[in-house]
Design brief:
- There is one protein chain.
- This protein is α+β, with helices and mostly antiparallel strands.
- Helices cover 45% and strands 12% of the residues.
- The protein has 19 helices and 17 strands.
- The chain has a three-stranded antiparallel sheet. The chain has a three-stranded antiparallel sheet with strand order 6-7-8.
- It is globular and about 75 Å long.
- The N and C termini lie far apart (89 Å).
- The N terminus is likely disordered.
Length: 548
């Protein structure tokens, strides 16, 4: 046993304060390593060693995770037993500990909960799996398979199942390992599997997530018989559309329907779920954030799609004057950007097609003007007359933040929270507001957590809205509002010398309608007297409708 500064080496293991320093040095060494000039055999050896290193790192991370959570939970349990905190406060503190762990692991809180469950299982219930992970013979994913398939067992049965699996942990495929773990669980406690499946019914839910190409997945998790039965009914209804009904009008409409089987089933399922009739427009609000130039294309640009546009004026000369900007935006498509807040990007052509389809159907379509900072990326104001976190003020904050602002979370917005608490004099304004999921809104109220606005996002050139979040251990995380049109796009350049900026200055009160003027929110298909305060896109739409 030898001292290592403030740490200690015991049996070859580094403990104490020396461990973070040793890990930092190892990370620095790996970051500076290169694979150039290495033979093929040595490259494969590097791959093998790195895979083993990931396993060993996952084992150490699991031990640290379990120790951190258990220490916090023990302290909370003592405070609860002594009457220092209520049951609700104790629950909030436990959630806060896991939220702090999620920030450290750079993942969402739901993922952190799974990491905590895996860590506790590996440390206390799965000694053989943990040993194989520590030596690098097993990957973290394969360890997760064992923990998942044995989660329903008691501590004693889980230890026995782990012992039975020790011989095949490193020699079978992932599928075979999952089957072996399930088989061991069924042999040890079949009733536990039955209880697990009965308990799973309580977790049924419906979720939605974005997919590629402007699509989205709608998922229903429910009992097997119910889900299969619903699918079978939908499939039977699709097959029935090829059977003659005897009604000439209905049969003719069915014959003219060129949709494939999958498209018909998807359309029908969505209509039934939303309670719509066939062809009826979805009666909900879906926000599309887009520039004026992306709404109407009538020609006069640099691309074929922009030919004749009165709004699309990015010329070759102006683009070439700023070569870096021209390379970033790729020419004429730089202003054809559309964002669905909280979900992602949509092609401009698809958004225009959607708007035209709504107008043709007579659907009320509203335009709301958003004021941005000069760069065009940071939302600073919109039409609003309220001061509570409701109405258009809430819409402004939701458009600005898109999802929960806590780093790595990305959950849908559930609450708009005062960064500086209202009870302490914090104002109800966009500058003092931050969007949270329900969990993080409660976590920030736990002892030791602090939040402070470091940038209001309202100063020209001052950057987006930023909040610094400090955890009980003193770690700081910056919660930055995303660009209005989403990440992954080049930041808009300021106007070049001699150009006239079409965007109004943020503080130009003489050209901007007052924020509290609710008449700015107007339907596209409403026609009345045109005044000088309207944007060019509103005038253009009303001209098109008037001509029609």
């Amino acid at each position: 046993m030898t001292d290592q500064g403030t740490g200690t080496t015991v049996g070859g293991s580094v403990v104490g304060d020396a461990l973070p320093d040793r890990l930092s040095s190892a990370l620095e060494a790996l970051s500076g390593a290169g694979a150039e000039g290495v033979s093929e055999a040595e490259l494969l050896r590097v791959v093998t060693l790195m895979e083993a290193t990931k396993g060993a790192a996952a084992a150490l991370q699991a031990r640290a995770t379990a120790m951190f959570v258990e220490d916090r939970d023990e302290q909370i349990a003592r405070d609860r037993a002594d009457g220092v905190v209520s049951a609700r406060e104790a629950s909030c503190r436990r959630r806060a500990a896991r939220a702090e762990l999620a920030l450290a692991r750079r993942c969402a809180p739901s993922q952190a909960d799974r990491h905590v469950g895996l860590a506790k299982a590996l440390v206390h219930d799965l000694p053989y799996t943990m040993a194989a992970l520590t030596t690098g013979e097993l990957s973290e994913w394969r360890a997760t398979i064992v923990a998942r398939e044995t989660a329903c067992l008691s501590h004693e049965d889980r230890v026995e199942a782990d012992r039975r699996l020790a011989g095949c942990l490193t020699s079978v495929s992932d599928k075979e390992l999952a089957a072996a773990a399930h088989r061991a669980s069924a042999d040890l406690d079949a009733e536990a599997l039955v209880r697990r499946r009965r308990k799973a019914v309580a977790s049924r839910n419906v979720s939605v997530r974005p997919a590629a190409d402007g699509m989205a997945w709608l998922s229903i998790l429910g009992p097997l018989t119910d889900v299969v039965g619903a699918f079978a009914a939908l499939k039977k209804a699709e097959q029935a559309r090829y059977v003659a009904t005897g009604d000439p009008a209905v049969d003719e409409a069915r014959a003219a329907d060129e949709r494939g089987r999958g498209a018909w089933m998807a359309d029908t399922a969505l209509e039934l779920l939303s309670g719509r009739c066939e062809g009826q427009v979805q009666p909900v609000e879906v926000a599309l954030v887009m520039r004026e130039e992306a709404i109407v294309r009538t020609g006069e640009g640099t691309g074929a799609d922009a030919a004749g546009s009165v709004f699309f004026r990015t010329s070759v000369a102006s683009a070439s004057a700023d070569s870096t900007y021209a390379r970033d935006v790729g020419g004429a498509g730089d202003r054809d950007e559309v964002e669905v807040p909280g979900w992602g990007a949509m092609p401009g052509a698809m958004a225009r097609e959607h708007l035209l389809r709504l107008c043709d159907a007579g659907t009320a379509t509203w335009l709301r003007r958003l004021w941005t900072a000069p760069g065009g990326n940071d939302l600073v104001a919109m039409d609003s007359r309220r001061r509570l976190f409701s109405g258009v003020l809430r819409q402004l904050i939701e458009l600005r933040d898109a999802t929960c602002r806590v780093p790595f979370c990305g959950a849908p917005i559930r609450d708009i929270d005062h960064v500086s608490p209202h009870a302490r004099g914090g104002e109800t304004s966009a500058a003092n507001a931050m969007s949270d999921c329900q969990g993080h809104n409660l976590v920030k109220e736990a002892p030791g957590w602090r939040a402070e606005v470091t940038s209001t996002g309202l100063d020209p050139g001052g950057g987006p809205h930023e909040v610094t979040l400090t955890t009980p251990t003193g770690n700081e995380y910056t919660c930055t509002a995303p660009p209005l049109l989403g990440h992954g796009r080049p930041r808009s350049r300021p106007p070049l010398a001699g150009e006239t900026a079409r965007r109004r200055p943020v503080g130009d009160a003489t050209r901007r309608r007052p924020v509290g003027d609710a008449t700015r929110r107007r339907p596209v298909n409403a026609v009345d007297t045109i005044d000088a305060t309207r944007s060019a896109i509103e005038v253009h739409f009303e001209g098109l409708l008037g001509a029609a």
